[in-house]
Amino acid sequence: MNWRNRVIATLAGGWLFSSGLAYPAEVQSTPPNTSGASVLDWNAHAAQLIVGPGGAAKAPALGLVDLAIVHTAIYDAVNAIEGFPFRTYAVTANVPGPASGDAAVAAAGRGTLVALYPDRSADIEAWYAASLAAVPDGEEETNGVAVGEQTAAAILALRASDGRNAGTPIVEPTPGPGVWERTPPALAAPLAPWVRFVTPWNLKLPSQFRPQPPPTHSSRKYRKDYEETRDFGGASGGLATEEQQNIGRFWGDQPMLQWNRAWRGIALARGLSGMDTARFFAMLSTATSDSLIACWDAKYEYLFWRPVTAIRAGGGDPRLTGDPSWSSLVTTPNHPEYPGAHGCLSGAATSTLESFFGTDWVRFTIDSNAAGVATPVRSYSKFSQAIEEVIDARVFGGMHYRSSSETGARMGRQVAKRAAKAFRPAPAGDDRDDDQE
Q: Which residues of 222-258 are buried (b: 16+ CB within 10 A; e: fewer)?
């Protein structure tokens, strides 16, 4: 059985087409009453509050849990108001009468964020007031607020003991060939090792997709990976072209902010309805959150060393050549190397996008605020191009070996399939759990 206690609404037949996406609807004659703009606004507020400048500056693996709390509450609220065209995530909200979806979005966003960040309540209340000012006063607004408050409370209760705030450190391993140790320049403590025990959103366990161990030092794959990162990922004197270095720097931006900006741009460009937008962000936030929970499980299981440590030490194999002065082009993050976290996150993101739209071939752009980027906006013809570039970027940035990011991307794709199942159309007269199908 899935760890969630999910209640699924039973719908009448029929299909409603919105923004090019087909889903069953209970009453086709009732027009959607939620705007995509309201969901986009609260996504921007949440992302800024969690990891933006002046915000909580949470690590992506923790910040994405908070983001998914916000978006699953919004999704369950909008899904209820729109007649349950999709499977409920955690709770079937009671809709007391005609209700404004935009008011529900605002109430769900406010309710979750005030609980998560009470010290920022003044900002959150200002956003809430501005959101409700755009909704006509009356019964629909009141009912919409009631629905949003229900789903916010339910999701917060669901995640109350999920382990995200455990803060448990680890006993750092004794340094040696292949073993992770603190990396320069900051030599910071290992980042949030307890994430590996956080309750996932759509997975049975954090270890559900744990990969095989990283390549051994004597393997041909390891030697190839090592030499590629050493030669192309250094801060100076390597073989990387200016464009390769630009790619490495480009994806060195704060990944949660960078991807959320791209998601908002895609949603706007595709003209998604309110229901579509709520589902879009619920799928993406839970998939990427699960991808990093799973990634952290493997990282702290294997505790594999970073290129900067390996290259300065000679690689752990007499057939390899080291460089005691080598540094990565992009600062190495303070957590173990295998698997690559950006591969996990971006693999989940791009696979979820492909699943949501039913095609890989969607044109979109991503921008970067990373320092030293020569081309701050990059364009893609399909989603898979982005994950391929991320894999390259982690080599050109010097933080990872290629096979580690490839492994992370595979994990991300596996996680994305679970998110697609969790948020699929609600079947009429069928309340079977996902794991029993």
A: bbebbebbbebbbbeebebeeebbbbbbbbbbbbbbb
Element (H, E) at 377: strand 377-380
Distance (Å, rounded) from C-alpha 370 to C-alpha 429?
Answer: 50
Calpha distance 169→192 (Å, rounded): 7
Q: Is the pTM of this model over 0.85?
A: yes
Residue 413, token pair as written in the block: 């794709």
**What would the pLDDT profile of 22-52 be if each residue is shown by its tens digit?**
333 333 334 457 899 999 999 999 999 999 9
d(CA 247, CA 249): 5
Give the type of residue at 288. Answer: T
CA–CA separation, 289 and 261 (whole Å): 16
pLDDT given at position 12: 23
Distance CA 105, CA 75 (A): 8
Q: What does R_g of the chain's alpha carbons equal in angstroms?
A: 22
Q: How many CB atoms lie within 10 A of CB 197?
A: 16
DSSP per position, 322-361:
--TT--BSSPPPSS--SS-HHHHHHHHHHHHHHHHHT-S-
The two three-digit tokens of residue 280, written as one number? 């879009």
Is the preceding peptide bond at 427 cis, omega within 30 degrees of 0?
no
pLDDT tens for residues 1-29?
A: 233 333 222 222 233 333 334 333 333 33
At 72-129, the pLDDT tens digits run: 999 999 999 999 999 999 999 999 999 999 999 999 999 999 999 999 999 999 999 9
